[in-house]
Every structure is written in C-alpha cells, then in structure tokens.
User: Which sequence fits this backbone?
C-alpha cells in the first residue's frame, strides 16, 4: 500500500493541534496516509498559498484546514486548489469559537469549504475518509463497518439505560 499522503491537515498555529489531532486520529484509524503542517494565513501567507497551489500536483486528494479567530486558512486554501477543503473552526479564549465558525462557513459562492462543527476535527477526518471512499470500495466497506459499530454502541447504551 502506498504511504504517500492523501490528506493534508493544515492549521494556523501549533496551538490548534490539541483540536486538530482528532482529525489525524480518525485518519489513522482508517489507515489513510496524511501529512500535518502549520500554515498561518496571516503570518505566512506566501507559504500558505504555495502549499494550496501545489497540493493537487503533490498527490493530495483532500485538505483539512483548522484555524481560530479570524480563520481565513480554509477559505484561502479553497481559493487556490481544486481539491475539496474541509474547514475546522478552532475555539479560542473568547467568543466560544463562533468567530472561527462564521469566518470559515460564510464563503462566497463558487469557493466551497465543507465546514464541520466547532472543534469538530474528528468529523473532518471521517468526512475526508468518506470523500476518498467514494472511489475506493474497500475503504467504503470499512466505513460501513464503522457505522455499524456506532449503531451497536448506541443500541447498547439504550439497553443499559433500560436495564
Ligand atoms: C489563528 O490564530 C490560529 O489558527 C490559532 O487558532 C490562533 C492563535 O494562534 P497562536 O497565537 O496560538 O499562534 O490564526
């Protein structure tokens, strides 16, 4: 199996990692190779644009981008790559992540970012897995197994409550 990264996880600061590592964890569970980078839209704009422009040619298939506050990273990456971009609003000290959420979700028509919930990095990883699974029957089968496990866990919790 190729170990070349298929998913790029980018974040505005290393301080975002405590939230973003859940995306990496989900990809690891599905044995999907990924890479991780810090790319601040405001502190290193040239590097951020270069990363976005090169991502497709480097073989990445999906980008996951997390940022907090004035969270421009996901949208700016989406503006320079044809790849699907999943945005993760990272909550900071103030405003409970609403600033990050609105910065990421309110994209202009023509430049989509698939925004997950505030601090929803695990779902970002799972969504990236589903995007890849669309063209990978074996991965799709593992996703179905995962969904079955979720069902069984929820069913079990209900049984325990009723007991
Ligand atoms: C954003 O500013 C980053 O994505 C991070 O969420 C926030 C704070 O960054 P640091 O000051 O912790 O580096 O661009």
Assistant:
């Amino acid at each position: 199996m190729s170990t070349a990264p298929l998913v790029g996880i980018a974040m505005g600061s290393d301080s975002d990692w405590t939230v973003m590592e859940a995306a990496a964890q989900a990809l690891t569970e599905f044995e999907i190779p990924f890479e991780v980078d810090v790319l601040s839209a405001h502190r290193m704009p040239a590097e951020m644009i270069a990363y976005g422009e090169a991502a497709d040619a480097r073989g990445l298939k999906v980008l996951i981008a997390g940022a907090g506050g004035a969270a421009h990273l996901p949208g700016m990456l989406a503006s320079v790559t044809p790849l699907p971009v999943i945005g993760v609003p990272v909550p900071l000290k103030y405003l409970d992540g609403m600033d990050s959420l609105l910065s990421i979700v309110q994209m202009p028509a023509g430049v989509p970012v698939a925004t997950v919930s505030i601090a929803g990095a695990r779902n970002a990883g799972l969504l990236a897995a589903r995007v890849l699974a669309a063209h990978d029957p074996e991965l799709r089968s593992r996703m179905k197994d995962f969904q079955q496990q979720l069902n069984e866990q929820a069913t079990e919790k209900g049984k325990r409550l009723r007991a």
Observations:
- The chain has a mean pLDDT of 97.
